[in-house]
Amino acid sequence: MNFDSLRLAFRDKDKFSITEREDHIELSPGLYVASGLNVVVGSRSSGKSYLLDRVYESSDPDDVVYVRQFDIVKNAEEKAFREKLADEEASIKADYYKPMNGISSALLNLPSKETINKRIKEYISNLILYADSAAREDEFSKCPIYSAGKIAQDNANKEQEVAQALITLLNENPLSIEISERIGRATLVSLLKIAIDLYKAKALRCKCIDYANKISKKIKAELSLESSRPACPESPFAEAAKRKAYVIRLAKLRGATKSEVEISRRKIGKFSRITKRIPYGNAKTLKTAIEARTSLTGITKLDDVEYVEKILDADGVSDISRALFDINVVLENERGENVSGGQKAEYLFFQALDKAASQDIVLIDEPESSFDNPFLNALIATEIKRISSKATVFLATHNNVLGVSIKPDGIIYTGFENGVHRIYTCDSSDSCMRSSDGHMVERSEVLLKLMEAGGTAYDERKPYYGLVGN
Fold it and tell me: For the segment 211-246, what is each residue's pLDDT rounded down to a tens digit?
């Protein structure tokens, strides 16, 4: 154990604790709640949502998830649900295409095939004129620089990538502790200094070459004004070869990605979000995806090289990498079927809980307004209980499945008595609940009143469950 590994460990709450578990946190002066699962109960307009709002406002937005009452149902409406899934799909696509952004930018900056062919024709024509004018050579055209080509330009991209990779390793990441233990921070810092020095040297060399070519071009232009012989034209073949190499590599990539492939399958509660890489079914879908302004009719029938050339020749293309294949995101239930109307709210709630699993504070306001008791008991209660093992959860509810059967660590009761709002708290094993100003209420009385509408009503319901005499 060294200082670096200890420092990195403190960044991950799963890897340390001050005690075996801090059982309580101070919500406000004199008011303590459980650091695990807290059930918030209270009658209508007693301040349950107000309490959750205050906790949310006093927390770092990056550390808290708030599942508000009725938000799930509202987002489960057909239009809102489609828009939410479309946003998810757009985000997944952006992440998947991201590694190819550099290729796309490079290709969009290349001259078109038509431009390359035109430059080659002009070069051959000017080269013939240059050869035919040998008899007119003079002291200006005899200067070596007059017929010299451009110095081959390079870049410092690789050196920059190496330096950036080392910075990534030094910054916090999922393998920070392992990297610190196996390699050591001092070694990485030393390597980073070397990488930065190499990058600076390469970048300086590239800048010098750029200046040299600019000076050479200016001198040639001035010499051509004095000489009777035309200057030797610059060859476009390197640029043509570069473009051809890009096209061939892109065509190979297109050929390798034409078949349908499942990229990922992520479980979210009882649902599966499946991401697939698929070929474009028609030119219209492709045109929309790459924002082309010219027709792409018949493109799906072309071979890979012709396909790439047609994409490069199209006007308005924003991202060539998206032309290679499409990304399709499908949402399925546990039976492998598309999500039905009633299951949309379930998926959205599971998704919210999935996000909550990595947060410090989770606020859930009356989920029973969206779901029935069997679903709450079988799935939601279990998931909330699991999350509370790592996060502080505040669950506002009137439902006895969530309020009692879930077996919370602590109970919070919001009461309104004689014009005064009070908050009472207790552990689940306590018989009395206390407020910060010393008032007390019986826990069993509060729960019976709010979860079962009182002891009398609870007893009256027993015969309907067949419980009397058993």
Answer: 999 999 899 889 888 888 888 888 899 889 989 998
Does this model's pTM top 0.85? My answer is no
The answer on 247 and 116 residing in a single domain is yes
Residue at 353 is within a domain: no
Task: Tell me the H-state helices in 66-175.
Answer: 71-75, 78-97, 101-108, 113-132, 144-147, 157-170
CB 407 within 8 A of CB 34: no
Q: How far is CA 22 from the centre of its chain?
A: 32
Distance of CA 127 to the CA centre of its chain: 53
- Which tokens is 190 given? 């030393």
pLDDT in tens, 16-52: 444 444 577 777 777 778 888 888 888 777 778 888 8
* Cα distances (angstroms) measured from residue 185 to each of 7, 15, 306: 12, 20, 50
Q: 94 and 147: one domain? A: no
Residues 409 and 433 in one domain: yes
Q: What is the Cα–Cα distance from 72 to 365, expressed in whole angstroms?
A: 11
- The structure tokens listed for 373 are 């008791």
Q: Cα–Cα distance between 369 and 285 in angstroms, integer?
A: 40
pLDDT band at 377 (very low <50, low <70, confident <90, very high): low
Please check whether residues 223 and 260 belong to one and the same domain: no
Distance CA 25, CA 21 (A): 11
Indicate if 401 and 301 belong to the same structural domain.
no
CA 437, CA 9: separation in Å to the nearest integer? 39
Number of structural domains, the chain? 3
DSSP secondary structure code for residue 318 in this structure = S
Average pLDDT for the chain: 82
Query: Does residue 190 lie in a domain region?
Result: yes
The amino acid present at 123, given as its one-letter code, is Y
Residue 99 lies in a domain: yes
| 239 shares a domain with 136 | yes
Give me the domain span that covers residue 50.
21-63+359-465
Q: What's the residue count for the chain? A: 470
